[in-house]
Specification:
single chain, alpha/beta, Rossmann fold, 4-stranded parallel beta sheet, binds pyridoxal-5'-phosphate, binds zinc ion
Length: about 425
């Protein structure tokens, strides 16, 4: 890879080669970050070249991705999700300049596709025919979908309590799904043992440093879609921390090659019932595990593996941390849906709930240019959506009864 210089440990700074089997730091076990040759990339990525590029997927930024020049790209159209200007929603949040990045419109309906697309391309190029991970959620379904498109087999390890809807997505994508009689920790351990035994490609954001590189493409798109105007504030929901760290890396990459002239401030949004990263940010103490009490299952991560990387990113950006309740998340789901036509899963709408709170508390000024990332589609979790949505009118086919119901409920026909 001509564009990649190596990988550096975010904990101890040890330098590594960026190879196929590069995962965590050999010295301290810390998470690695990929380092690029910005002088080289500067000659390859310019505003003009991007404007002329007709590839409307994350591969338009391949010079900024850790994939070999000759690597075969996956056919699935990942990335280039829409960035909507949302004036009505902005009004409800107290913001004059609000944009929504709808990443629920990716092929398997979450931002995780950006990471899985890179993982699959790397796996194929490394000569692997099988990929694996353990997860109950979007990482799993995106790996299964991207693997299917890339011609790979996938093994997914899930805990016993994995929700039916998510199991179905995996099975339809042809994954071999191993439902482990135990909790997530048990599924993780068994998957690690099997990956070691069979030599499968390991798609696990906890240890694979290439995944947040895929996620950073969402920032490239936001910048490009705003004509390289940089948002003042960018709200992201945070679980493991890999996503927000990737988003920060994306803006820093653009800054390093001079495509943007400043950086946004990050708003790290976690659930009140599970907020180890925001708690560490607020009290300045090391990360400590938390229980996982929130309806936003995709960000219910009590022991984040990319926590340190995330905290560094949020601090460096001059960012803020906001925790939201399930009630606030459900309100944001209704606001996004009814005022912007965007349907987010609870973890996807959480960022918007956090942005609303940040404005309400005076942390984000009303005239700021703000972007909220919707990280996953609402149809992923219909049970959660149903709690937020309320019920339909339910009446016999009679106009008189319909009029009566409108009156009773104060609905203006
Ligand atoms: C994974 C995920 C997140 C958070 O990403 P992390 O890397 O775990 O912080 C947010 N929203 C959705 C929908 C996700 O699937
Ligand atoms: Zn280290």
């Amino acid at each position: 890879m001509r564009n990649v210089l190596g990988a550096v440990c975010v904990s101890c700074g040890a330098e590594h080669e960026a190879g196929d089997d590069t995962y965590t730091c050999e010295k301290c076990g810390g998470v690695l970050e990929i380092v690029y040759d910005y002088q080289y990339i500067k000659t390859r990525i310019t505003r003009e070249k991007l404007a002329a590029n007709k590839d409307h997927s994350l591969w338009r930024y391949r010079d900024f991705l850790p994939i070999a020049a000759e690597a075969k790209l996956s056919p699935l159209r990942v990335g280039w999700s829409p960035l909507y200007r949302a004036d009505k929603l902005g009004e409800a949040l107290g913001l004059k300049n609000l944009y929504i990045k709808d990443d629920g419109l990716n092929p398997t309906s979450s931002l995780k596709d950006r990471a899985s697309a890179v993982a699959v391309v790397r796996a194929v190029h490394a000569g692997k025919d099988t990929v694996a991970c353990s997860s109950t959620g979007n990482a799993a379904s995106s790996l299964a979908g991207n693997a299917a498109a890339g011609g790979l087999r996938s093994f997914i390890f899930v805990p016993d309590r994995a929700p039916a809807g998510k199991l179905i997505q995996l099975l339809i994508f042809g994954a071999i799904v191993v439902r482990v009689k135990g909790d997530y920790g048990d599924a993780f351990r068994l998957s690690a043992q099997a990956i070691e035994k069979y030599g499968w490609y390991n798609r696990n954001a906890a240890i694979n440093p290439y995944l947040s590189e895929g996620k950073k493409t969402v920032s490239f798109e936001i910048a490009e879609q705003l004509d390289f105007k940089v948002p003042d504030y960018l709200a992201v929901s945070v679980g493991d921390g890999c996503t927000i760290a990737g988003i920060w890396k994306g803006f820093k990459d653009l800054y390093a090659i001079g495509l943007i002239d400043r950086l946004p401030r990050l708003i790290s949004v976690q659930a009140e019932g599970c907020c180890p990263i925001n708690r560490a940010l607020a009290n300045g103490l090391p990360l400590a595990p938390m229980e996982e009490h929130t309806m936003a299952d995709s960000i219910a991560v009590g022991v984040p593996r990319n926590g340190e990387k995330a905290i560094r990113a949020i601090r460096e950006s001059g960012g803020i941390a906001v925790n939201v309740s399930d009630e606030e998340i459900m309100e944001a789901m209704r606001l996004l849906g009814s005022l912007a036509g965007v349907f987010g899963e609870p973890a996807g709408a959480a960022a918007t709930a956090g942005l609303k709170k940040a404005v309400g508390q005076g942390l984000t000024p009303g005239d700021a240019l703000a972007v909220s990332v919707v990280t996953g589609n609402g149809l992923k979790d219909t049970a959660g959506a149903q709690r937020a949505a309320g019920a339909a009118l339910h009446i016999p086919p009679d106009l008189g009864l319909l009029i009566g119901e409108f009156r009773r409920l104060g609905i203006r026909p």
